[in-house]
Amino acid sequence: MNSYHLDHLQYLETEAVHLMREVAAEFERPAILFSGGKDSICLLRLAEKAFRPSDIPMPLLNVDTGHHFPELNEFRDRRARELGGKLIVRKVEDAIAAGIAVPTPGEISRNRLQIPTLLAAAEEFQFDCLIGGARRDEEKARAKERFFSFRDSFGQWDPKNQRPEIWNLYNARINPGEHMRAFPLSNWTEMDVWEYIKREKLEVPSIYFSHRRQCVRRHNQWLPVTDLMPPKEKETVKELVVRVRTIGDIISTGMVESPANNFDDIIAEIAAARVTERGSRADDKSSEAAMEDRKKAGYF
Predict the structure, then answer these.
(1) pLDDT tens across 149-207, in order?
(2) DSSP state of 275
(3) Is the separation of the CB atoms in 300 and 33 below 8 Å?
(4) Does residue 5 carry a pLDDT above 90?
(5) What angle separates helix 190-200 from helix 38-51, to the nearest 10 degrees?
(6) CA–CA distances in Å: residue 244 to residues 17, 258, 260, 271, 291
(7) Cβ atoms of residues 61 and 90 within 8 Å
(8) Sheet holding 211-218: strands in order across?
(9) Percent of the chain having pLDDT more than 90?
(10) Which among 26, 278, 273, 3 has a CA at the least distance from the CA of 134?
């Protein structure tokens, strides 16, 4: 089909499928980072389109912080089984026990501890490329990424020293111990993701739709009340009709007051939104450079 006849979503899909096939052709041991979130759901659909009727030629990898929403892990495990994919889960708790990840006293969030856990998994399985669902519209650090993002032998990323990608040509050369991150959704937006999910009739975890949940107001947002994060003294617990826009740790994922209970409602809500999706993540609010610092250290 002539590219001039492709609509916007078809063009993005074609670009992403090309990236998927490029990874499969260039690397010996790639893996897809799959959390069960909306972006990684799109990645699995794109992998199906890139490789079916053959099996998806790469395993699925997830770093479990131990602070995930139960609905997310249930969906992750079930979706992997439905696709017949090999799901590899590496837990931050196990990395702590093995001395791979070292928590800071008093630190509640485990986002930082995902970094050594992920790098240890890449070394354990000798993965030479990890495919992730990051998009450039999410926040400033991710806007600096190329499609192929080189990581050195320490898993580090240097935003000022990236390889040129001219005419859709990708430099996949790496030395032993180095690896690549690949981001097929780089040119997608949050709106594109939801329109694609709607068009492809993809299932998503229930917490993306409106539901009742007990929340407390903290860090200028509504956070879910859980055993991991009980309400503090003088905090008022409210039961609200909420949903999530982006899913991270249950202790840092902000809930959005919303009646949206179908794809059309979500798309309309995003069209009217004036806050980015990661504006509801408490772990990204500590400083503007927080994400870039984590990425330089090996975060996805």
Answers:
(1) 988 888 888 888 888 888 888 888 999 888 999 999 999 999 999 999 999 999 999 99
(2) S
(3) yes
(4) no
(5) 60
(6) 28, 9, 10, 16, 20
(7) yes
(8) 221-224, 211-218, 238-243, 256-257
(9) 60
(10) 278
Closest of 243, 246, 187, 180 to residue 40, by C-alpha: 246
Q: pLDDT tens, 11-31?
A: 999 999 999 999 999 999 999
**Class for domain 7-193+289-297, per CATH?**
alpha beta
The amino acid occupying position 225 is: V
The greatest distance separating any two alpha carbons of the chain, rounded to the nearest whole angstrom, comes to: 62
Percent of the chain residues past pLDDT 70, beyond the cut: 90
The sign of the dihedral angle between the CA atoms of 235, 237, 242, 243 is positive
Q: Cα–Cα distance between 115 and 286 in angstroms, integer? A: 18
Torsional class of 36: left (φ above 0), alpha (ψ -120 to 50), beta (otherwise): left
Q: Residues with Cβ < 8 Å from 146, sequence gap 6 or more?
A: 162, 163, 165, 183, 186
Alpha-carbon distance 121 to 29, whole Å? 12
- Which residue in the block uniquely carries the two structure tokens 């609010």? 285
- Length of the chain equals 300
Domain boundaries, the chain: 7-193+289-297, 205-284
